Amino acid sequence: MQTSNPLYTADELCTIIATILHGADNAERRRNEADLTTALQQPPNVGHLVTILCGTPDGTPPTAPAGVRQMAAVLLRKRIFSLWRVLTTEQQHQLRHLLLQRLGDEPTRPVRFAIAHVVTRLAKADANRGGDGWPELQHAIRAAAHDTRVEMRELAMVLLYSFGEVFAEENALSGLAAESVVRGLGDSETVVQAAAVKAAMVLLPTLHEHPAVRNAFLAHLVPTCIGLLESGAATEAKVPLCVSVLDLFEQLFDDLPVKKYGALVQDVAQALMRLMANPQHHPRVRENCGTALGQLATLKPKFVAAPALLEPLVQVCLGLMSEDNTISISDQGSGGVDDEDLDDSDDDVDMLHVTSACMVGCQLLSALATTVPSKAFTAVLLPYISRVTDAPASVDARTRKATMIALACLAEGHASYLRRRVGYVLTVTHGFLCDADPAPREAAAFALSSFCGHLQPEILLHHEKLLPMVVPLLEDTSDLVRRRVAQALDTLCENLQENLDRYVPTLLPAVMAAIPISSLETQCRLCGVLSSMGMAHSAAFASRGPELLEVLRQPFGLKTPETMALRAQATETVGVIGSAMGRAAFAEYYPFFMQEVVANLQTRHAAVREQSFGFLANMCELFREDFAPYLNDSIHCALETITEDRAVYKNKHPLASDGSGDALAAFAAWKDNGGDDDESDEDGGDDAEEIHLRVRTADVEEKSSAVYCVGVFADVMMGQLGEAQTAACWEALTGLDSHYYPNIRSNALIALAKLAKASAGLPAKAMQARSRAAIVAGRTGAADSSGSLVQDVLPLSVRDRIDELLNLLLRTIEEEDAENEVVGAACEAVSIVMDYFGTQCTIDGPDAVMRDVVQLLRGTMPCQRRGNELDDDECSEDDGADNMSYEQYQQLRQQRGDSTSADRAHYLQGKDPFFRRADEAAEAQASAIMAAMAQHQQNGDAAAPPSSQLPSAAALPPWYRLVAPEMVKHGVHLPEDHDGVILDAAAEMLESVAKAYGALLQPYMPYLVPLLAMHADVGTRPPEGLVTAVGTLATVLQAYGSVDANGDGAASPASEQLLAPFVEAAAQLSFSVMAGSDESTARANSAYLLRILVEGCPSFFTQQPAVVPQCFQALWSVVGNEEDEIPEAVDNAVSATCSFVRCLPLPLLPIAQVIPPLMAHLPMKIDKAENPNAVRTLCYLLGNDHAASTAAVSSWLPSVVGAVANVLAAATVEDADKQRLVQQGASVFAQAHPQAWRQQQQGLSDGQRAVLQAWQL
């Protein structure tokens, strides 16, 4: 009778394994896998694996095939701990002897490697039970390293690699390993050198506790590896070795602090620059050198910014960019055909990919531009650019091409520098667009697309110069030039908005004429231009929609691989054109194109499917409730794409390599489900796994588009989505929390926020009304019994989703490894739920959210600490202490927020020392809760204390009660350049919280205002930082004080009381920015800040009248310099002046000097939202309290009447505002003072008088 765990002979186990590896019957294979899993729970069966692998102790060699022996080694590795525990001392000695002997005798390389990992895990098992360190193994490694046989020397390196991996930082062989690896690196055989490099990579972390060995090892390692690169960089066969060495150098760049190893890091960087600069070296080596140097710039930007490194780096980049005529690697492709035919099983597919020299240089220069501080980078790059732009004829065409690309990189990394020099940029670009050689023309068009994307809004003001400069190049003889021109027009048209209308009659025919003469890829770009024109909401473009749709029917019939990219782009373009045309005009085309999109989604072409999801999103937004018949199928298709994993996973661990694909597949599929939990507990590295995944970009972008599409469905359909669909989408999207692709994670977080809104199902205004009512109830003492700030008015299912989502978002923001893009998306998602749910988002108050906001503003969130070399700086925090007295040293430590030992420990744990006391209180409460739970379990239910005696989560005080506001500026870490991704998103999140909670933010304001002031310091912060900080401060103060920028009433006493503590500091900040910054947007925000202050707290200005002239001087420094300012800045300054006139007593103002020039600037130039404030001011001035009642009226009344006529004539002023001006201002004055009104009209132009007559004035 067979037992539940039968014992097998070695031959029987061998047969089972062979069946698993080679059996054709899947059912039989699965039965054998189950039998094997059960069998290996018995130690005697595990012992038979030794026989299969090594033979018998009497010297009989193994007879099993190599594949079976390899799998036996894998299985033995998994069960070695359980076997070791049951062996006697003699048996343990015999097992070690057998494995070492077989390791030397095994002829098959993959099996030999598998045995090596068994040996190292056996060494770990022995060490865990106090073994003698297995001196025979150490002797064997040393002997193998000196062996004359190549395979033995390689085996020595593989054993050292395995030791480093299995023992991790406990490796006791550090001295032997370092010596042997150095010897392996100097070996004459490439396979030994490659294995030695891998061994070095795992050895380095184990040497942290052995500084002497580490320093000696590095002293040999670095020059040896540089020598390997220099000798092998031009040899095809040695490229993989060189790539491994460069991976090692990337690891060194990450591990080595520059304060101690700066000279060594610099030597490596200079060697890599030499390798990159040599055109004789293999392209893959040059590319990876650039990647490593880019990683160095990302990790240690301050170190790279030193002229000794930065200048040669820029020179190398420009040299590479001048080597050929290419712009980017996509020049040769047409639409991802290679992706479709990619053989994922090819381990060397990356070696077949060759990046052009120009692209390598461009990628590195772009990395430098986006990481190195602006001052250092521009100081090095600009002289090179100027030498070419000053005398372009003195250099060759490729150098001119490289110069334009360099200028594009500068725009990408340091846009604020070029935004103030847009005129120069366009002059240079125009010159290169007219170049006789196509390469500089193409580069100029490529750069122009970068300028249009990064130099906004300033560059858009030059549209009258831009479009005539670019459109004629659609007829260029070079297809590549036309393609780049289309790319530039794509970016430009998308942002021109209403200014595009006048260009449609010339631009649209030029685009349509270029399509038939262009390649497929350029046709895709031209369709992209049509999409951007549609996004600009141009009426002229929308009127041409029907004829465009007839043309775009054709690509939907394309089916060949090389044409599918055009079909994909046509799908997107049709959706955008439909949105531009409007629901009624597109309705007749809707069924046809929906049918075609259904056919698209039945294909497996990722790009076509990606754009089809975009089309569905557009149609949902356009047809809304009429999209309902397609909703379920669309969601089903999107969820299928979201949950499908098309990545190909490959184990590239050195010990998993072999020549038998079938065997590896079987090893990967076989899972040991044995019940021995001690295996994983004792193991320092169980499986020989180094999993690499290969995924097509198109597949990832399709999934990202599907996620975005679900978010649009939720946002538009809201309650119509239904609970079942909402739950299905929620489950799928939360499953993407740990997805490897940042864009997918980002889209998923935002889509989840929209799903949370859909689960509530209420219109936004209704939810906001509920939120406000809940605040009122909470503030009047009618809050619920839980003591929350507001009442919970949400259904339980919605509350659960909100709580789950907010926890996910805050956890993402606080994650150490979260990418900046994902953190920014998490902040945006918080803003979405805050804007919709208001105070219902966090009924206990915004304490957790505000903590993250404060930490982000302090620059101490884990995602902000990467690449700023803070850890290097920490080691020198007490530099100079030897020269201080004890009192001075204590004062220094008191002033530094992170200088105490406790704070330093907190910092090293990845936390902000500013919140240390709050964290300690939370930890103490958690410990108390755990102790109470343990006591409850000991006492039993009957003896359990009442719940009132247990620690409560609500009892934990908010962090602002434990942290002093005056400490908020201590220990702040702000990067030299503005981190737009994170800080801008954090600022938007803060604005949303402020709008939701208003005056309830009072406890947090003493922390927020000083931090925002630090970010708005004109002397230390970059222009982009000023824009964000001043704008956010204005919005927060407006929401906090409930300042209604569109209201007529005077400021309330409550508003004045709330704002009073911050008005003076905010006003001085505004003066500082307007006087010290040439960033026009920052000056615009400063003007708006002054407007909020005077509307919210006018008493400050009446009590300190000396400040008023300063305000006018600051505001009119903007208005009087309108030639150099963006129109929005002028409009904001004019509107702020209006508020000063309207909110302060007229005797306090220099009326004669202010009002006439103010009236000359009404209405606003661009910002229509400021026109209502202008109308209110005109009504105020024409009211009975002021008009014709003083002797000073005659000096400013004519300008007011003229402004009335101009406002009534302006097309940019809404009709409702015009009606208000007539009824509450002009008519009131005309009826009260008819003679004065008629008299003032005499000085108007005929056109102005005609306008007044038309309004019966």
TrEMBL record:
Positions annotated as HEAT repeat: 466-502
Q: Which UniProt keywords apply?
A: Cytoplasm, Nucleus, Protein transport, Repeat, Transport
Query: In terms of domain of life, where is this protein from?
Result: Eukaryota
Q: Which residues form the signal peptide?
A: none
Q: Which residue range or ranges hold the Importin N-terminal domain? A: 32-105
Name the Gene Ontology biological process terms: protein import into nucleus
Keyword Transport belongs to the record: yes
The protein's location, in the record's own words, is:
Cytoplasm; Nucleus
Q: Does the keyword Methyltransferase apply?
A: no
What Pfam family does this protein match (any one)?
HEAT_EZ
Q: Which InterPro entries match?
A: ARM-like, ARM-type_fold, HEAT_type_2, Importin-beta_N, Importin_beta, TPR_IPO4/5
Molecular function via GO: nuclear import signal receptor activity; nuclear localization sequence binding; small GTPase binding
Its Gene Ontology cellular component terms are: cytoplasm; nucleus
Task: Identify the PANTHER family for this entry.
Answer: IMPORTIN BETA (PTHR10527)
Q: What is this protein called?
A: Importin N-terminal domain-containing protein
Species, as recorded:
Leishmania major
